[in-house]
Structures are given as C-alpha cells and as structure tokens.
Amino acid sequence: MSISVNRILSNKHNRVSAATLTASAQRASDDVRLVAQSRQGGGRLVVSGSYTGAADTVVDVEVVSGSGGALTPSAPVIRGVGNGVLSIDALSPAAVPEELTFALLDAGTEPVPASLEFYGAALVARATGAAGNALSLSVTRNLTLTPMQYATIEPIAAGTDSLEGPQWDWGQPAATDAGIPDAALRVQFEGFPAVHRAWKTWEGGRFVYRLDPATATWLFVAFLVFMLYQTIGEALRNRPSRAQG
Q1: What is the pLDDT at residue 58?
Q2: pTM for the whole thing?
C-alpha cells in the first residue's frame, strides 16, 4: 500500500465562485460574420461596422435609391460562351423592378481588315475595324517622261487594247508566255494622264501590239508617244511609304 500526499481544492472560503459579475462597460466588436443571406436581385450585400452583444441577429436591408436619389440597376448576368458585355446606361426614377432576358440570335461576322487592289497588288491593313478603315493612301505623281520618236498616225478608238500593223511598233518587247513581260514599256500619249504597258505577242504569223489598260477615249492622229523613265513598280519601290498596311 502506497502512501502519498494529496491536496484537495475547496471552495469553502471562495467568495468569487458564487458571486455575480456585472460589467461596467462593454467593448464594441467589428467582427461581423455573415452566416446566411436571402436576397432578391443581383446586388452584393456587405455589412460592416461595430456592434455590441454576442447573440446572432437578422438584418433586413432594402435598397431604395442610388446616389443622388437615382435608381441603381442590378449588375447584368451573362450566361453562356463568349465575352459579351451588357450595360445599362440610364434608369427612369419611375421604373418598377422587373427582370429582362436577352438572347443573342446572331454572333455576327468575323471582322476582316480593310484592303485595296493596287496595280495588281493587295494592300491590307494590319488592324481591323475602325483603325484599319481610317487608313488612307496617297500617291504623288512624280514620273519623268522621255519623248519617243513615234506618234499616232492613225486614230485609236476608245477601249482599244490591241493594235495591228508595223506602224505601231515602238520597240515593245515580245511576250514569251500568256503574261505581260516584266520589260513591257510604260508609255503615255500626249495630253492624257493614263500610263499604259505596251508589249507585243506573235499571233497568226504576225505581231500584235498590246496596251494595258485599254484606251479610255479616242486618240486621233499626231499624238506624240512618251516613255516613262522608270517603270511604275520601280517608282513605287523608290519612294517613301505614306501608310502602313
């Protein structure tokens, strides 16, 4: 049998154990914890501030107006695939609560950049939409013309793109295939701004002399023929660009 010393605590002389403690002041707390909420609409409710008392309580909140007395619409809710944006710009003070549903029937067409056909090349804007549509291209006419020893000795009708007979031989290069040769002459008739490419093709045992583009108007006798000092392609490559795209 073991023997040990034990101390038994007693409240025989403890006056505090049966006393009633009354706080002279209660410190407010700002630790607000939202346990559950029930709402109508798409608004977000946040309760903040300090409070006294440890019991849970139910807080009813009603939004009657926005800033300055104007009504505040609920935030639109977007459902589905995509990144659409829906905004409400204004709300009448006499508006009543209602729920509106909008369905997208057509997603539209894929935007394409602005483009321009320019002498056989396609100029395409890098940006789509308004930024690309706002681009503009200006070409300053700065070509050197050299008079040739030729002139029109017969009238040329409007819309003519081919000429027959040795009288139209101005030293044009011959085509080796169905295309226009790179060395085709660039010629201009006196008094007319149009620049034509001139070459010849061998057809039916004779040369046929071609013009591109066709003449836009009648050309009568004695119009001098001028040759450009540079080809159009070389002139465009050698001048600074006015627009990117």
Answers
A1: 79
A2: 0.42
